[in-house]
Amino acid sequence: MNGPGLDAPSPARRSRTLVLIAMILIGVPLGTIGWLNSLPEDTGELVNCLGTIRVDGQPLNSGTVTARREDAGDGESNATGTIDALGRFRLTTDGQPGALVGHYRVTVVAGDSAGGIEIPEGEQAMETTTLSIDVQPEARFNIFTLNISVEH
Question: Do residues 139 and 48 lie in contact, with contact meaning Cβ atoms separated by under 8 Å?
Fold first, then answer.
């Protein structure tokens, strides 16, 4: 005697099950690939970066900022910026706005019209600077304030 649960599945039901399995085996990997492709990544493109330089709490009103990626390859250009009268700068790389994604060491050199403000020598050389920034793939996260203390 065969009970109701022991009957073999009908050919139509078996066909629907195989179609469902095939859709899962194909659809899930395709969906995953599409999702992974939508994630932000370091594409080698420049990302906008803005910042402010403060010396003992006051904006540095002239000078330059130079940023070098810690894992920069040979021949990779630095990102640079000119400090305006309000202490603001915008990084550019090879004349184009922005910087590559990555961790940077940053140097600051005061301009002639900085009112005699002396930037510590350590912050003027890549080998000794303590200043750093992390450039992220999204520009909205790349607004930096760099604070420099001058010993009196």
Answer: yes
Distance in angstroms (rounded) separating the CA atoms of residues 92 and 78: 9
Cα separation of 66 and 12, whole Å? 70
Amino acid at 54: R
Residue 4 has pLDDT above 70, yes or no: no
Domain spanning 50-148 has what CATH number? 2.60.40
Residue pLDDT, tens place only, 37-59: 554 444 579 999 999 999 999 99
Domain ranges in the chain are 10-38, 50-148
Side-chain half-sphere exposure of 37, counting CA atoms within 13 A: 6
Q: How far apart are CA 131 and CA 34, in angstroms?
A: 38
Q: Which residues contact 62 (CB under 8 A, 6 or more apart)?
A: 83, 84, 85, 110, 111, 112, 113, 114
Tens digits of residue pLDDT in 65-117: 999 999 888 899 999 999 999 999 999 999 999 999 999 999 999 998 888 88
Average per-residue pLDDT for the chain: 87
Q: What are the φ and ψ backbone dihedral angles of 18, each rounded to 5 degrees? A: -65, -40
Q: Say if residues 91 and 82 touch (Cβ distance below 8 Å).
A: no
